[in-house]
Design brief:
2 copies of one chain form a homodimer. Chain A is 71% helix and 3% strand. Chain A is mainly alpha-helical. Chain A folds into 2 domains: 66 residues, Arc Repressor Mutant, subunit A; 162 residues, GntR ligand-binding domain-like (Four Helix Bundle (Hemerythrin (Met), subunit A), Up-down Bundle). A two-stranded antiparallel sheet of chain A has the order 1-2. In chain A, strand 1 and strand 2 form a beta hairpin. The first copy, chain A, is elongated. Chains A and B meet through helix 1, helix 3, helix 4, helix 5 and helix 8 of A and helix 1, helix 3, helix 4, helix 5 and helix 8 of B. Chain A binds a DNA duplex (30 and 30 nucleotides) through helix 3.
DNA sequence: GCAGATTTAATGTCAGACAATTAGATTTGC
DNA sequence: GCAAATCTAATTGTCTGACATTAAATCTGC
């Protein structure tokens, strides 16, 4: 593992890449302890602060964790589904907001991918998943619920649907698609009538899952997509008129 | 934007979080220049190395970039689809390898999500997407192709299929699911007969897309999933017997 | 033996310095 | 006057050396 001191690239970036490669290729395994900062500094022939910057880069990606104390040091992290999801949600959210992705495009992506879960979720969902969905439907019907809370409940409902597929890889991949929509949804004001229509479709979807009817689930999701797209179109059109 | 000097958490982690929040909430916008390291150090009442560690954390997530020189500094990055995809592929790959995700689970996730693209891709794919897929099919038929190259070509084929949906959000979300399978596929040895069957299914899928037949595309993908799962089962069973 | 004090090895933080880079201002040559 | 060369200032990149903090291991007294 060597770096190029004459390269124009930052030494800390090079060191981070070298260690990252070692982790990805399995030369460093989970829970293995890296050499101490002083030893790494000596190995790469750089100062300790430079090594530290490299380690912080890796820590930001959850590739390593550090512990202080006598037996401390930097250890290769087991990348958990939870940590990966958190990162993915942050990245997806930023990607959508910074690239001015249209509501239409994001919505299409989200519902397309969610429909992919319908067959699995209809087959495998547990009573717990159904109960979680019913609970969110109930919450969504509460009067006085803010638009933001309504959207948050919507996200929870859909994540329960996705988790119903009981495939952690799918749950991970879809976390970004579902959660990143929330800021976009938050731009919409929901009238009581809008909410009623959405809740009715949520009920339809929950019923279909309870009956383990994959086709009806997919249909419900498609209807919800159409409803959401129409709603957004109206809201944005009204806003454009107002100025 | 303040931090807690008495918190047990690293100061550099706190500073990174504070700036990250500011970016996510839009208080710092794309291409905006952050204060210089010296100014940040003064503001947060920490030393420059500590600020630098925080900035390197953000740089590792592609949230900022730094420039040297008179008008240099740290700038908020526009998170590009490309950078986001690269990160997602790294994370997905590590997630699968470190958590010993079964071939079955990963394969199910990948094909479920890919089937979600079938309707859109059948409708919108361009001649370019078809050409890319045909080219990969041709490559896959070449004698003397290593297993690794065969798998890489497989990934390219499927990414062309996904890109055919012409929805960048979908392409981004699925990049991880498709690419992260490659290391798992690389564990399989493909006989000539295996390859022939896979190529035939690829042709079937390409034909369906050319005919803009969504249902046939989905069917082709399902058949390919079954084929892949069977193949993997055989390989792993044979390996288990051998020891 | 065991509780508490001590040692030790590691990360976390700091201060100050110098090197390298780059844009812009200034000077110089004609 | 204008273009090229030079200087200047601002900023990041890196280094050195030190001290603070943490936590496990070891020693000590009883």
């Amino acid at each position: 593992m060597k770096i190029d001191h004459d390269s124009p690239a930052d030494l800390s970036a090079q060191i981070a890449s070298a260690i990252r490669e070692a982790i990805i290729e399995g030369r460093l395994i989970v829970d293995e302890r890296l050499p101490s900062e002083a030893e790494l500094a000596e190995h790469f022939e750089v100062s300790r602060p430079t090594v530290r910057e490299a380690l912080k880069r890796l820590a930001a990606q959850s590739l390593i964790r550090t512990q202080r104390g006598a037996t401390g040091g930097a250890f290769v992290n087991r990348l958990s589904y939870e940590a990966a999801q958190t990162q993915q949600i942050t990245t997806s959210t930023l990607l959508l907001s910074m690239n001015a992705v249209s509501f239409e495009t994001a919505c299409e992506a989200r519902f397309s991918l969610e429909r992919a879960c319908a067959p699995l979720s209809a087959q495998r969902r547990t009573a717990d998943h159904l109960a979680a969905m019913r609970a969110e439907i109930h919450r969504q019907g509460q009067p006085g619920l803010t638009d933001e809370a309504f959207c948050a409940s919507d996200v929870t409902f859909h994540r329960a649907l996705v988790d119903g597929a009981r495939n952690p890889v799918i749950s991970y991949q879809l976390a970004g698609a579902v959660e990143a929509m929330q800021p976009l949804m938050n731009m919409i004001t929901f009238t009581a009538r809008d909410r009623a229509r959405i809740i009715a479709l949520h009920e339809q979807i929950a019923d279909a899952l309870e009956a383990q009817d994959a086709e009806a689930t997919a249909k419900g999701l498609s209807a919800l997509e159409t409803e959401t797209q129409d709603l957004a179109r109206d809201v944005f059109a009204a806003r454009a008129v107002k100025g």
